[in-house]
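ok so I'm stuck.
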Amino acid sequence: MAEGTFATVVNCMDGRTQLPVIEYLKKKYGVDYVDSITEPGPIKILAERTYLTIIDQIKKRVGISVEKHGSRHIAVVGHHDCAGNPVDKATQPAQMEKAKKLIEAHWKKQAAERKEPVRKT
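replied:
not stuck anymore, here's the structure
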């Protein structure tokens, strides 16, 4: 297990979002490090569930963060003016909720298989 405390973020590859999100998560959860998994328009990918190979890769990468770094917080991030998800602001909250539910369901199942509690944040 890596030294230090970790959170995990599934974030857009857009460089404008990287540092603000990392700084926010470090402060909010009091962690030392944030593992970043990036894709263009990740909430669209997770919400629409069209690109199953990409979704499997996201899950695998989050799994590495959880299993090897002991991450106990997983954030999914979307943002306005996303080139990978060019939708209006009104569409993103529904996408975010679907993306969040997919990630939550997957990690609750994983935690149950490992018999450990899931911390909902």
